Amino acid sequence: xxxxxxxxxxxxxxxxxxxxxxxxxxxxxxxxxxxxxxxxxxxxxxxxxxxxxxxxxxxxxxxxxxxxxxxxxxxxxxxxxxxxxxxxxxxxxxxxxxxxxxxxxxxxxxxxxxxxxxxxxxxxxxxxxxxxxxxxxxxxxxxxxxxxxxxxxxxxxxxxxxxxxxxxxxxxxxxxxxxxxxxxxxxxxxxxxxxxxxxxxxxxxxxxxxxxxxxxxxxxxxxxxxxxxxxxxxxxxxxxxxxxxxxxxxxxxxxxxxxxxxxxxxxxxxxxxxxxxxxxxxxxxxxxxxxxxxxxxxxxxxxxxxxxxxxxxxxxxxxxxxxxxxxxxxxxxxxxxxxxxxxxxxxxxxxxxxxxxxxxxxxxxxxxxxxxxxxxxxxxxxxxxxxxxxxxxxxxxxxxxxxxxxxxxxxxxxxxxxxxxxxxxxxxxxxxxxxxxxxxxxxxxxxxxxxxxxxxxxxxxxxxxxxxxxxxxxxxxxxxxxxxxxxxxxxxxxxxxxxxxxxxxxxxxxxxxxxxxxxxxxxxxxxxxxxxxxxxxxxxxxxxxxxxxxxxxxxxxxxxxxxxxxxxxxxxxxxxxxxxxxxxxxxxxxxxxxxxxxxxxxxxxxxxxxxxxxxxxxxxxxxxxxxxxxxxxxxxxxxxxxxxxxxxxxxxxxxxxxxxxxxxxxxxxxxxxxxxxxxxxxxxxxxxxxxxxxxxxxxxxxxxxxxxxxxxxxxx
Length: 716
Ligand code: ADP
Ligand code: MG
Known about the structure:
- By secondary structure, this protein is α/β, with parallel strands linked by helices.
- It is built from 29 helices and 21 strands.
- It has an 8-stranded mixed sheet with strand order 4-3-5-2-6-7-1-8, sandwiched between helices.
- The protein is globular and about 85 Å long.
- Magnesium ion binds next to helix 5.
- It comes from Crucibulum laeve.
- Residues 241-428 form the Helicase C-terminal domain.
């Protein structure tokens, strides 16, 4: 039985909700009227016909055309998952988008979020088994699911959204789904993208030469957009952005503004400055300029605050005064996955924070980098959704044409692949080089990943998954973190490692408001453990629990309540995974010994992220890769120890290491002997220092027993 457009329209207009058997609410009718205006609504018949005739289809359409919210609902009307006991999945690269869209669609379907419509993101599962038939989930969550259910049996249709963003997980999912589609002719697949390189995806998904994957195009719905460039390159894009927003506020007609910046701190600072200036303007020109609200948006913001971007602009301050304006200052998230109604002006500085991986020095860092031309176009399109709009590009037209890359560089070509490789091996993929990637990653990046997983003993020397590796793959964590957590009972500190892992999985817990930096630093000093930042994180969490999760306590100590709550939630989730694999939760009462063991357990995971102090200028050199780094000012170590282990690497004015703890060289040799095998070391101060440790140990033991070290570290 094929479901047709007229049938769906009848169901939509019906008095009772087919999914809950309840009468529809008033809100349902209001939202339905808004849905009818979306371009996709007019193409319902065409879509349902194509969907019923093909196993795989590719959909392209501009942001705001209704792809993410409407297509999954139409699929639900067609698949009837609630009757057939199946689920419709729609993946999202960003967890914020998954949450926000699920909420919107639950409202549109007039059901409760978390019941018929839900979302799953890392560490949060808002679905109900047996009830949820439409699930918005992040791409990495679906990939995880595939590890345990290789044919994704519980789904009737899987919609991959935002594939043009080319995230690592979405790329791998495309390959997996292509393969599953051959084995499961009943599984339907929809691939959705915003930009026009659809042909690449269509070609990729052709399973047989005689059946072509059709393209479903949602027509443009945008109004004309005027694009402006700067005459000269801007040296300070933040300052230029603020200036432009205020210029629009002063001189342009009514309509909201969307400004793209790169990160939390930059966004908060810009919001404050814009607000101050706009208030001044308002006081000086109360008759000609309206009030302005500035709404920040980035992924670590608590969900209630994220929802604020959908609020309407403020009204006039006085009854006949000029009406107000809303300015949303957002990271890249607003570029693709979310559409805000009412935006007429877009300010685009041409940069975003992007993950860059350097396989030579094995570091992945976030760098502010130029966006692609496709991204710039995507950003501009937000201005034309309500009526004709304007986009102000804070770079020259020449740079746009000559300097920007054509499209987004796939993440798989610029990432650390260790997590992905571990998952692929767990999925039973033997030949990683010849796997059907949509874009093949650099062999060097694959080699580095295999090498790391081998050092971590997740893969044996032949590249087969070990028992340890199989458990590591079950943790939604980087392999190093998973390893450290799994071995921690041997060091009698698994309770503590669990806390530290949870704390390392949330964004920064420390608040440092601009006008209270000194107070914030003093508060932080009180909680700092001089032996290492990891121990400080542990201390913060323990104190938070001892103070009964008290809001005032976090406030007084300049800590983010939201981040701590998240850490607590992540801790609970990880704990249940540990219990599933019988990993004991142990603590030591002797604090000195405990602190030492914790750092030993850290070595088992992060032995590749060790730095050695060179000379006494405070410079460190990373082990083996010989990258010069310095301790970040936020680091709380009491001294400058000779050997440190670090978790993060940032490049600002110079390369810094963050989240640092002191380690002893004996531990490096004892717990990760195969990595610290001195014959593989470049000559230099670090090697000599390690050699001294080996010699000393050999002296004590009578002979150098390198082989035994190798064994013991493998077992761990
Ligand atoms: P697309 O995926 O094609 O970019 P969407 O389906 O995301 O389009 O959006 C369709 C419409 O739904 C847009 O007009 C958008 O403003 C609206 N919308 C989506 N999510 C929300 C939300 N959480 N709150 C209010 N409106 C929303
Ligand atoms: Mg979308």
